[in-house]
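Notes from hallway chat w/ T.B., transcribed later so I don't forget. T.B. wanted the structure written out for a chain they're using in a teaching module, and asked if we could keep both sequence and structure tokens in one place. Agreed to drop them here.
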Amino acid sequence: MIPLFSVKQVKEADTFAVEQLQIPSVILMENAALSIYKEITEFFGDLNPASAIGIICGKGNNGGDGFALARHFCNAGNKVIVLHTSAEQEIKGDALLNFQILKKLSEVNVSVLLKQIIHSDEIKIFDECFLVIDAILGTGAKGQLETNLSDIIIEINKGSYKRVAVDIPTGLNVEKGTGKTVFNSDLTISLGELKTGLFYGKGYKYSGKVKKGSIGIGSEYFNSLDINTYLIEPEDAYNYLPLRSKDMHKYSSGKILLIAGSADYPGAAAFTANAAHKIGAGSVILAVPESIKNIVHSKIDISVVKTFSDNGSGYLQKNNINELSELFDWCETVVIGPGLGRQNETLNAVKSIIENNKEKNIVIDADAIYALSENEYNRLFLENCIITPHHKEFSELLKVDLKKLQEDILKYGSEFVNQTKCILVLKGAPTIIFLPGGDILINSSGNSGMAKFATGDVLTGILGGLISQNNNMEQSAICGVYLHSFCSDLLSYQKTEFGYTALDIIDNLPNTLKFLNDTFR
């Protein structure tokens, strides 16, 4: 896993370098500029000296990085167009020193243009550039941008050139992953260490590829810090795959009772069951209402299908629980929710199932999540549960406005898990896993092609299938979330993000597992 750091921790590293290691701050700025130059040229390839580079700089240290960076591009033979958003007298400290060096360079080198930008329409000077670099605001920016600066960012985002952000994209509150108008970057170079807010919310949307830039401190300082947020890597998914012994059989490789489907959503049950099988579960029993049995049978691959009486209603009711008592005794993992429906009787049945199966591992998804509403999540025992809402379901569960939730998603997720002791898999772009011990794990794979019906049902089946094989809820959550979206990434290369479905994800799971085995074994 890749550790992610807060803004406060990275700022403290700067202070440590200056005050304890006695490294002059201007040296840190020069180190940053050299590292940014290196990352840019590696990412885009050696830039043709004929390629013009645009850099827009603020008045603080972020702008200072930009002024220093311009010098390195000039030394490489590139034409450099540098716009600064503040007057020279407003630029201070190390940023001013690098501004003055660049100013003198521009007086003797015609390939360097340095000027203040007053109006957003002056951004058209960047039209000849291959690349435009944002060095306006650093980690200190939290509120909305001033109108003129916002207009400048809007104009830059319209450009056809490539875009790079120094440290963070301007307009992003990197502490919370929020922002109204944000620089839309192809590449962000996070200085010192990777910052959490670049990987979720607006940071995920606008940061592009995120690379780490060195300021010359070394990793030892950061290794000593206490962190709780990580980015999931492919090797993590491989390491958490269930071990399969030579003498295992269908009942020792996972016994799942899946309660899903209704008259309105019979297909959800089939998607979930098929995914559980494809991920390696040995025995999956699918329990559905009697009236939809034939529909489900036509879509199922291997699972045993059991029915409960529904008197033609097509929904689970509380009195059905007794009919399923032998199956509850038999199974080790219960998966409940996909396509179940939200009738009061159904939700009451879900509550009863949760209350009476505290010794089982339970995955609660989709409609079953609504059984936890009205503060039921504080009453019910959920320490044996993985709960998998998307953002809207989670906001409705907490009775918090969706926009407010998304403005502080890590806080709300952490508080919920602290109260319930469950594992929260908060589905989205990206999916974030909250563990009872306080760790937060952000998924690093996935693409927009997953925004289709039934992909969530597939994830639920994968989670249930993994849990049933290794009996480790946390490892299964990490492995399952990554596998699900990494499988989708492989499909996007083959079929584009438009051209694959939830069924394709299920069918591609074996290829994904083989890819991980071939890579890491």
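Follow-up for T.B.: The domain at 234-240+250-520 is CATH 3.40.1190.20 (UDP-N-acetylmuramoyl-L-alanine:D-glutamate ligase). Might be a good example for the class.
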